[in-house]
Specification:
The chain is α/β, with parallel strands linked by helices. The chain contains eleven helices and twelve strands. The longest helix has 15 residues.
Amino acid sequence: MDIKSMYLNELENWVKEKGQPAFRAKQLYQWMHEKYVGSVEEMTNLPKSFREVIEEDFVSISEETRQVSKKDGTIKFLFKLHDGQMIESVFMKYNYGNSICISSQAGCRMGCKFCASTIGGLVRNLSASEMLEQVYMAMRLTGERISNIVVMGTGEPLDNYDNLIRFVRIISDEKGYNISQRNITVSSCGIVPRIYDLANEDLSITFALSLHAPTDEERKALMPIAYQYSIEETLNACKEYFNKTGRRITFEYSLVKGQNDSEKQAIALAKLLKGINCHVNLIPVNPINEREYERSDEDFIEKFKFILEKYSINGTIRRSVGSDIDAACGQLRRKHQSGGI
């Protein structure tokens, strides 16, 4: 395991194995996670000989390219990993602070029909350090602090469960970056056993389920995971998450024109979620070249939200940012793979 993915107690053992005094672990941990430096050379209070040892286990990523929205300043970064794989991160400015959407895998095997991330399948999981570095690198490049993290980029976070948990615990550690876990959202298409595992982790993150349809048959048309777990099974796991954590569930619902945006489907969704402490995030889908799906018309989106509220289901329409760049999950990575950039 690389040192940036280690908990402090693991780092203490590593430092001892390298023949260094125990206090070096705290110094090293502080450089990586409180000061989030980009190179070992910047760790000026560590001996040069020790820095040479650290270099062998120090993970960093590099910026391949970026796209900047002229409309709202959203930045989409394409980062290059040590093995040449590419991942995406999106930096967004809001009134309440800066937010970043990070990737958890290079590629994805979930196969959701409207998502560019799944085209080409899964290459590999990201380490905890590669997830951390997306946050740290974005702050180094922009010079701005990030107050909200969303694990909703390329990949299925719960398909990379152990590294996800490491990432959450390290980024929220009071001895490191110390972001509130309440400001971290993890989005999943619904790997049911892992939702139960997550409920037992004693974390206070927000869990978001990609639902996208009110019935099993309609969901199967959009999301292959629906063949493995029914909506009933999935919602039961979400209820357990709320019971264990007290954290309200967010349901992501991407509105696809003519597929899942009718009045009948809005009513069905409202009835399905009745009694669940939840919030519905309505997302006008971002069209991608490889798929024929179109974004729902504005009046359909507004009507869908109105129907949910009529049935006492709290819903919001996600404000579209970065609409003039390849801001949808997997778009910029896909363009790079096909030689478009």
